[in-house]
Amino acid sequence: MAGIVDWGNIANIERVKIVTKETTPKTYVFETAASANFTAVVSAGAENELRIKDTIHGQIKTEDLVKGYDLTFDDQKLLPEVFALIDGGKYTPDVLDEEFGKYEGPMAGAAVSRKKFDLSLYTSDRDGDGSAVAYHEWFFPSCKGKPVEGSFKDGDFATNSYKLSSRPPNGMSPLTVERIEELPAVG
Questions:
Q1: Residue 24, helix vs strand vs coil
Q2: Closest CA relative to residue 126, chosen from 43, 3, 11
Q3: Which phi and psi (to 5°) does residue 143 adopt?
Q4: Is the dihedral of CA 78, 97, 15, 87 positive or negative?
Q5: Which residues are 29's β-sheet partners?
Q6: Which residues touch 171 (CB under 8 Å, ≥6 apart)?
Q7: Which of 84, 74, 70 lies closest to 20, judged by CA?
Q8: Domain-by-domain residue ranges, the chain?
């Protein structure tokens, strides 16, 4: 009997990497995500039973099928390019000073054409002394953003809540987890 492989202790959100799916892809790597959740989106199977009085004579069953995942991650930093990609609006940097600029959300009541992107979320495996011994890349393909939500509270930092859906084409895995030695570069 073979032993169970142990990929360690999963901790923290070390980094998030987004790569747009367009002719000239853009990559955004950042370390400011504070929390993340993912939930499977399932096409529920069915059970059709042949029951006559108090006896089941047969059943036809179909399995649940995973279509993809819905993800949410919270960030207390405002990264305008990421905000615009997920929300579906337009960020225009200031010509004289790239730290400033303007974000305009999508038009009210109009259809929004959001760009698709792949998302990788990186967690760490922490040793007893607190050091990272390895990392895990959680890969969600073919994501699309949804309208951004946020919260403001006096005396506290604001939080942006990013919601997105990952719906890969048929034949592609909707989630891949890989143990890796190093995180991707930031920048």
A1: coil
A2: 11
A3: -90, 155
A4: positive
A5: 17
A6: none
A7: 84
A8: 14-42+66-180
> Which run of H or of E encompasses 81?
helix 80-87
Of 20, 7, 13, 14, the residue nearest 177 (C-alpha): 7
The pTM score is 0.88
Cα–Cα distances in angstroms (integers) from residue 85 to residues 60, 89, 170, in the given order: 44, 7, 24
pLDDT digits (tens, 9 = 90+) for 12-64: 999 999 999 999 999 999 999 999 999 999 999 999 999 999 999 999 999 99
Residue 150 near residue 159, CB atoms below 8 Å: yes
Beta bridge partners of 42: 66
Beta bridge partners of 68: 41
What are the DSSP E strand ranges found in 55-131?
A: 55-61, 65-75, 90-93, 101-104, 117-126
Q: What span, in angstroms and rounded, lies between the C-alpha atoms of 137 and 156?
A: 31
- Residues in the chain, overall count: 187
CA angle 66, 70, 73 (to 5 degrees): 145
pLDDT digits (tens, 9 = 90+) for 116-174: 999 999 999 998 898 999 999 999 999 999 999 999 999 999 999 999 999 999 999 99
